[in-house]
Amino acid sequence: MSKPSIVIAYHSGYGHTEVQAKAVAEGVSEAGGTAELLSVANVEAIDWELLAKADAIIFGSPTYMGSVSGPFKTFMDASSKAWSTQDWKDKLAAGFTNSASQSGDKLNSLIQMSIFAAQHGMNWVSLGLLPGNNSSEGSPEDLNRIGSYLGAMAQSNADASAEIAPPEADRKTASALGKRVTEAAIRWKN
Ligand SMILES: Cc1cc2nc3c(=O)[nH]c(=O)nc-3n(C[C@H](O)[C@H](O)[C@H](O)COP(=O)(O)O)c2cc1C
């Protein structure tokens, strides 16, 4: 069986969400998938063919003003052409987001992505990790330290560069999402 093709369609204004996207890609490769990083920053340059051929699409956006970023929303709206022909129907989907605050209303971005995937007839894959850092035994180094279920969340201090933010725990959480989607895609293809 050929390797599942997983496209990571993301926007990142200042590089932090791109770090998360690259960590997702690492998880995909580790689990035996082919990861393609696709920036959607320029809607005119999006490779729609690549998306149409993927087994799974993992969506990623920073949370800006409590929702997905403007460029990511432009990509969502431009995908209405693929929606009209149901190009992405029955593919797997998942999502990740990053913002400065611990919450920062990141959940809203993941909800937007999951509804977007449903409109395309896709099957949403959750994060599949228990929450970390939620007991006296926990620590900020825990996997899923922010305690998300719908997708992978990351938090980047507003004054920290993408060299150091988001921190390692959030990068590992993003990799775990890439791994989970790839494993699901292998089962889905069988
Ligand atoms: C226009 C704008 C709006 C933002 N809104 C939020 C927000 O609603 N919640 C939050 O926690 N952080 C917010 N932030 C902070 C970003 O989410 C954070 O800096 C993130 O790491 C940026 O990711 P990027 O480097 O991939 O663009 C906002 C930043 C910008 C530029």
TrEMBL record:
Keywords of this protein's UniProt record, alphabetized? Flavoprotein, FMN
Question: Which Pfam families does the entry link to?
Answer: FMN_red (PF03358)
Q: Which GO terms describe its cellular component?
A: membrane
User: Which molecular function term from Gene Ontology is one that the record holds?
Assistant: FMN binding
Amino-acid biosynthesis as UniProt keyword = no
Which positions fall inside the Flavodoxin-like domain?
A: 6-154
Name the PANTHER family on file.
FLAVODOXIN-RELATED PROTEIN WRBA-RELATED, FLAVOPROTEIN-LIKE PROTEIN YCP4-RELATED
State the name under which the record lists this protein. Answer: Flavodoxin family protein
